[in-house]
Amino acid sequence: MPDGGAFVGDRSFPALVLNADFRPLSYFPLSVWSWQDAVKAVFLDRVSVLSEYEAVVHSPSLRMKLPSVIALKEYIPAARRPAFTRFNVFLRDSFACQYCGGAKPTQDLTFDHVIPRSRGGRTTWDNVVTACGPCNLRKGNRLPRECHMHPRQPARQPTSWELQENGRSFPPNYLHESWRDYLYWDSELES
């Protein structure tokens, strides 16, 4: 158990997980493990601890600070092709409607078939874009040229690298100070 008062409110001491090259496994969602999984990985010698919280866990014979940043000892290559999922379509399109350009929360977004399914369009990277509800309704089952609604960016399959870069633009709500050197969000470099 963490020493007295180590859990404050709902704080759970997640560990940022880096690949063996010291880059996050993923930016969005940010690669984090629970403190329990991080401690287990330390004892199994699968990770190196790069930074620690002040909070301590202990057993009758051992006492250790909770890891805040860990790096895998074996490199995991990124998938060459990202999975075609609703979330990844939103991430490719930076969570913005490709018709009006409005950035929306995920629950207010949907995806639109550029060539409607009723007209032979398929549900693929090359035919699906992020849309807000009003634009999706306005376009309906028409082709872009029929309704004068053209996507701001063409529908296409992104690379895993592009999704990672887009994910860096959307930092999570919780960022521990020890993570900032590994994430490069709004970091100012010294000259």
Major β-sheet strand ordering: 2-1-4-3
Q: Give the uncertain stretches in residue-range form.
A: 1-10
Counted up, domains total: 2
* Estimated helix fraction: 10-25%
Sheet with the most strands, sense and barrel status: 4 strands, mixed
According to DSSP, the number of beta strands is: 6
Question: What is Rg?
Answer: 21 Å
What count of helical segments does DSSP give? 6
What is the element layout, followed by pairings?
Blueprint: E1 15-18, E2 32-33, H1 35-43, E3 47-58, E4 63-72, H2 86-92, E5 109-113, E6 128-132, H3 133-139, H4 144-147, H5 160-168, H6 180-183
Parallel strand pairs: 1-4
Antiparallel strand pairs: 1-2, 3-4, 5-6
Task: Describe it.
The protein is of the alpha+beta class and 191 residues long. Helices cover 21% and strands 20% of the residues. It has six helices and six strands, in the order E-E-H-E-E-H-E-E-H-H-H-H. The strands form two sheets. The chain has a four-stranded mixed β-sheet with strand order 2-1-4-3. Strands 5-6 form a two-stranded antiparallel sheet. Strand 3 and strand 4 (63-72) form a beta hairpin. The longest helix has 9 residues, at 35-43. The protein is elongated and about 70 Å long.
Provide the descriptors you would attach to this structure in a database record:
alpha+beta; DNA Binding (I), subunit A; elongated; disordered N terminus; two-stranded antiparallel ribbon
Summarize the structure.
The chain has 191 residues and is α+β, with helices and mostly antiparallel strands. It has helices spanning 35-43, 86-92, 133-139, 144-147, 160-168, 180-183; strands spanning 15-18, 32-33, 47-58, 63-72, 109-113, 128-132.
